Amino acid sequence: MSVKLVHAKTVQNSSPLIHKNSSIISQFGNFSDATGPSFIEGTSNSVNSQTEGVTRTNFEKGIQTAGSVDTALQLFEQSQAIEFAQYFRKEVVGKPPSVAEISQTLCNLSRITGNKPALIYLASLSEELRNLYVLPNSSDAAGCDKVAEKTLPIDRVGQQVIPDANRNAIKETVTAWREEIGLPPIGSGNGSINNAQKLYEWLVKPLENDLEANQIDTLVFTMDAGLRSIPIAALHDGKQFLIEKYNVALIPSFGLTDTRYVDVRNLPILAMGASEFEDASPLPAVPVELSTILRLPWQGVPFLNEEFTLEKLKSVYNQQRFRIIHFATHGQFVQGNVSQSYIQFANSKLRLDRLREVAEELNWAESPTVEMLVLSACETALGDEPELGFAGLAVQAGVKSALASLWRVDDRSTLALMSEFYLQWSKTPIKTEALRQAQLGMLRGKVRIKEGKLWLSEGNPITLPPKISEQGDLNFSHPHYWAGFTLIGNWN
Looking at the domain covering 269-432+485-489, what would its CATH class be? Predict the structure, then answer.
């Protein structure tokens, strides 16, 4: 079967790159006026003309010698598509989107949603860091007229070179910060921000003036190897966290992202999870998590413990096509090939390589598509392969976006974040804004556990069962508790 990264207008035209069997065609591509590359089902040994031509050496040389930002960004898009395709055992055909097409799509989305996104590409090269960015093609969302590629205003794109931030320096800083922020805090306060501030200086500060001048409020990152496991929300400028200024999201690449906007607030949720496992640690807050997220205005029925099986998932989904699927369970993105990462069901592990088969069998990509897959208790190891599995989760699952965590946190903080996220999502139509508000609620102490109750930013507190309440009060202001949760894919 072939999987084409296409857009709305392309779908209606016949293409030699699309096979007759195109039932999952709509799960890929940003469906705007751009046409992205394609994935064709392959094997672990799959190699084609595109993968042969883009080695790491060629990529770095191409980025550094590109005659224009457009050329550099297209090379980045191509390289990302190939890297994810190789990890997920697929082949690549087709062309990456141009800068003009990306800028046009960002402008159209800004007009629809009211948010102003910037797409930021971070290339971690041997001797330097390259920050490339694309802005909406008009500073006025109402004026998103199509522009020819050669007439795209020069201030809509740009790049910065940071020679101090070579690959080794970034790797050391990211590793040290992940090890620090991934551990439960000792004492009060937000801990050291030295590494968070250093990364901010490299990754975001060079673009600050352009972002502020264009009133950008949403940062969408596509990251090079070694950067995808950064908890972007907790980057720090010395005064405040990045999440205090911007919505943030991570995408594998623009061409691998379905950017179509759909407001799915108040639609039914398929909520499943387990609190007890034979070969994994218990998650005692899961029953409360499922019942809390399904409060009005959200609808749905929770499937807990022995009902949390792959067979039940298929049976329930075939009876009703849910737009949001929530798994409260363990998930692991680990070193090694894609088959070694998994999502834990009550009676089995669903390997990441088999997730694609489930998505195809259940037609998650067919209208109405699955808008969001939530993994509320997963963990991502450091390294290129785990971060490929994490950043490529939405692509592999055949869904438009995914919400998952970079590290495992206290079960109570997962309960708190997910409860506040769905509360915020019921009020705002933008997923990244809902996640941002949930994280801010934890950072600022509005979301907390006190005297045996979970307090959210509004409404009555939720009384917790003894297993949870007896653990005492918990303040979630430290970024350990909230910064690992990352939105992947469609950010709208």
Answer: alpha beta
